[in-house]
# Entry
Amino acid sequence: MAKIKLSNVTKIFGKTVAASNINLEIEDGEFVVLVGPSGCGKSTTLRMIAGLEEVTEGEIYIGEKMVNQLEPKDRNVAMVFQNYALYPHKNVFDNLAFGLKAKKLPKDVINQRVHLTANMLGLEGLLTRKPKQLSGGQMQRVALGRALVREPDVFLLDEPLSNLDAKLRVKMRGEISKLHKQLNVTTVYVTHDQVEAMTLGDRIVIMRDGLVQQIGTPLDAYDCPENQFVAGFIGSPEMNCFEGVLASENTKLVFKNKDVILNIQGWDMGTPLNNVLTKGVILGIRPEHILKMENADSEYSMDIEVVEQMGAQTFASGKLNCAAQISALFDRDDSLKDGDRIGLLFDLKKFHLFDKETGQSLRRKR
# Structure
């Protein structure tokens, strides 16, 4: 096992900057998830750690050694790809043993490692089968096993669950989490799925257009997003955002636009808020922080356009005060249907504020 350090790492393809000035330290045994939309640079960053892409600028360290010039085979990393990359003509045993045989390890060592890994992943009864005889989940476990059997210092996974159906993704997510806790191998995991990132990562690295937007625990990113992009990307359904201005009225901070006036709680009136008073800001509030009122004639109302039953909760979207679009999560027992008008109550301590020009968070008082 080993820690990983990326220092000012940049990757340029022609005129395209795929990853820019990445600075990241991953501790020994830590599980870190790189997450972001397609094309944000997360897979490129992973491939640079693996040695499958050359670094244009910057340095990558695994353990205490800079590995920029080392071949992938010399970095003692193991990678699991999105498409499994199993050898179709080899059975499960030989797929698991392939890397060990390439290292010319003794036969008894190979047998011991393969059977130990197969037992760990529930593959003992499948060792004689070819990949075409396996389900998607079984093929994914073989791909994981082929990486684990090498006993690497670093475990790299590139969108490993994207080809599985929703139910199997949830199951495999649990297996990967359990496996990491059991083995405690330094792991870097790439996904575009925020649910995977939130549930798997000790920390998550949120990327956009080749740039790191925020690094922190999943709950840090959810509760204290650094900017509007992170706020919108993390959380499902996504955060409601409204443009407006801030004003100070009777020592209270007020958000205003043509549709609503909201008192904001929990912020100091000092810097940086003084700098944005009367200037444009974005106010954000998550759907789960909006409550249903019995009185439809309350100060804030919602004309419901779409209702979606989600099992434990009901998701509704519509117009706030007959104008701005808004979405909210309600209790499943709330009787709602398209066309209803309901009153709304906002949790005044759960608002987020962002500078309209930069998108950066205007920090709430701690």
User: Anything to note?
Assistant: Residues 166-183 form the longest helix (18 residues). Helices lie at 42-50, 92-102, 107-120, 136-148, 166-183, 194-200, 218-223, 228-233. The domain at 237-355 is CATH 2.40.50.140 (OB fold (Dihydrolipoamide Acetyltransferase, E2P)). The CA atoms of residues 307 and 316 lie 5 Å apart.
